[in-house]
């Protein structure tokens, strides 16, 4: 089973849920606003996908940071920010086992599941 990571009240998440359900793909949902995210998983996502992509700089939470908090961003600081405020993680993150998909793009989801 695949795992869909994100937060419940997000329009992009709703699109991903709808796509998975329409294609009858079973999934588990992990709400990282409620359950958090472990450092090991987050660091692995950042290595695989790039911390610059995993950190959602367009999020309201990130934009609310002070300029001092945004200075000197690197992988370590980005992970610390996302652990403290998981809503800064781009969503959704779809874990399909052998790899992760970041964000929702119907074509990318279709391609990933066509190979399974």
Provide the residue-averaged pLDDT: 94
Distance between the termini: 12 Å
Radius of gyration: 14 Å
Helical fraction: 40-55%
Tell me the overall shape: globular
Q: What is the chains' assembly state? A: single chain
Give the total of beta strands.
Answer: 4
Strand order of the largest sheet: 2-1-3-4
Structural class: alpha+beta
Sequence-ordered SSE layout with sheet pairings:
Layout: E1 2-6, H1 11-22, E2 27-31, H2 39-49, H3 51-54, H4 60-63, H5 67-70, H6 75-84, E3 93-95, E4 100-102, H7 106-114
Parallel strand pairs: 1-2
Antiparallel strand pairs: 1-3, 3-4
Key features?
single chain; 116 residues; alpha+beta; four-stranded mixed β-sheet; 47% helix
Overview of this structure, please?
It is a single chain. This protein is α+β, with helices and mostly antiparallel strands and 116 residues long. The chain has seven helices and four strands; from the N terminus they run E-H-E-H-H-H-H-H-E-E-H. The protein has helices at residues 11-22, 39-49, 51-54, 60-63, 67-70, 75-84, 106-114; strands at 2-6, 27-31, 93-95, 100-102. It has a four-stranded mixed sheet with strand order 2-1-3-4, sandwiched between helices. Helix 2 packs across helix 6 (75-84). The relative contact order is 0.22.
Brief synopsis:
With 116 residues, the chain is an alpha+beta fold. It is built from seven helices and four strands, in the order βαβαααααββα. Helix content is 47%, strand content 14%.
